[in-house]
Specification:
The chain is mainly α and 310 residues long. The chain contains 10 helices and 3 strands. Strands 2-1-3 form a 3-stranded mixed sheet. It is globular, with a radius of gyration of 21 Å.
Amino acid sequence: MANNQTMVREFILMGFSVGPDMQMFLFGLFSLLYAFTLMGNGVILGLISLEARLHTPMYFFLSHLALVDISYACNTVPQMLANLLDPVKPISYAGCITQTFLFLTFAHTECLLLVVMSYDRYVAICHPLRYTVIMSWKVCITLVLISWALGYILALIHLFLLLPLPFCGPQKVNHFFCEILAILKLACADTHINEILVLSGAAFVLVGPFSSIVISYMRIIWVVLHSQSREGRQKAFSTCSSHLCVVGLFYGTAIIMYIGPKHGNHKEQQKYLLLFHSLFNPMLNPLIYSLRNNEVKGALKRVLGTDRPS
């Protein structure tokens, strides 16, 4: 029976259930947001590389977060824009699987980078005298390499279990990109192991890291509130609040998507949450760090030449 099945060689992404006029509007809107995402994160990367005062562990980690955000957006948004122009244009099987793998890699890596950044803030505020010893450049590079490596390995595990699955139709993916759960729905085989792995993987990279971030910030808040220096408290709250905003946006949407209760029209809700996750989050991150961080704003003024002594 399996020999008589025709294997699917390409998929059609169904995208959003809207009319042609709305599709063109969304194309223009998402193109603009995509441009802002690339520009904002590019500016962050440029500032950190050009401004010597930002050559610190905190901004080293931020540069990798910006790099992940650019990769995140470039992996999903161009295909989404192409589908808005031509909804029936297919994506090849290889292209779809590659997109799934890259999405998982960048998602896992960002989760782990946010944990590393919270640890950096914890050491800076709770152990300031030992900060340069604990957060040496060797340690910082090692933490970043571990984040990228674990993100890649976790995505590779999903890929190894996904590749053997047969796809014999239908070929329509109810999503705007090749999201792993939407792809598993089309497999002509038992996918319980894959789905369990997705859930357990989400718990590993979301619940555990998020819990450690919460614990770190409880300790940070305790130390900051008992600090005698008003200027120190303001600086700590400025840098930490930026990171907490990014953590809240990223982990909040991810936990709702993969671990939260399933009710109502869950597939459509997940689609829009992932849109926020893959387009709006990468665009908002540089805005949050630049608007709430005096060092970034100061570096931007110096690079532009507008920070002149009176």
